[in-house]
Specification:
Elements (H helix, E strand, L loop, with lengths): L1 H12 L1 E3 L5 E3 L8 E5 L40 E6 L6 E7 L5 E2 L10 E5 L11 E6 L8 E10 L7 E9 L2 E9 L7 E7 L1
Antiparallel strand pairs: 1-2, 3-12, 4-8, 4-10, 5-6, 5-9, 7-8, 9-12, 10-11
Length: 196
């Protein structure tokens, strides 16, 4: 009777075996997004459909293991926000605002608080593999409200609207959304928010 009961408790508590055979707690089990809300016109999807092995530079969790673009040289953490817009010449930026109000963006890539902007395209010579990645260094992100915004800085002659894929990792769960950006009338920025 102990075996099934222990298994049931581990499933509920997100446990796994250690080298000693005793269950351990998932370190990201208590990092859970609440009140996930997209701006008007933004649909946030939390379901994942495995499409095969992980593909690089698409800002997607292709194999549904809770990590975005793993094995592709991008940093990841308990929080990760990544955008991809293919080989478009457009300049697109990601901005993440943490609970203290600190903004992580191109002009402030690593404010105090643990969030870091890893790459800014096209400035960093992205060679047609346009992605920007913000991740949290550490295991205990600040609690409170987060906002993630994707904005079209300059289309540089790109076909409009510019199609951008945004994925977010919060703990061991990923969220995704497809955005269409165009200059003017509030169409140049889209995003979502959540609470930890």
């Amino acid at each position: 009777m102990r075996g099934p009961l222990l298994f049931s408790l581990c499933v509920l508590a997100a446990c796994g075996p250690t080298s000693s055979g005793r269950p351990t707690r998932d370190p990201y089990a208590d990092v859970v997004a609440k009140n996930v809300v997209g701006e008007a016109g933004v649909t946030v999807t939390s379901a994942c459909t495995p499409t095969g092995p992980e593909l690089c530079f698409n800002a997607n969790d292709d194999n549904c293991n809770g990590v975005i673009d793993e094995g592709c040289g991008s940093a990841t953490g308990v929080l990760q926000f990544m955008i991809a817009w293919g080989d478009s010449p457009a300049d697109v930026d990601i901005v993440v605002i943490d609970p203290s109000g600190a903004k992580v963006n191109k002009s402030n890539p690593s404010p105090n608080g643990g969030l870091r902007l890893e790459r800014s395209c096209p400035d960093d010579g992205c060679h047609g593999q346009n992605v920007e990645n913000v991740y949290f260094e550490g295991n205990e992100p600040p609690r409170g409200k987060y906002a993630v915004e994707v904005k079209l800085v300059d289309p540089h002659g790109a076909e409009l609207p510019v199609k951008v894929h945004l994925s977010a990792r919060v703990g061991s769960r990923t969220y995704a959304m497809d955005l269409e950006l165009a200059p003017g009338q509030g169409q140049d920025r889209r995003g979502f928010g959540f609470e930890l």
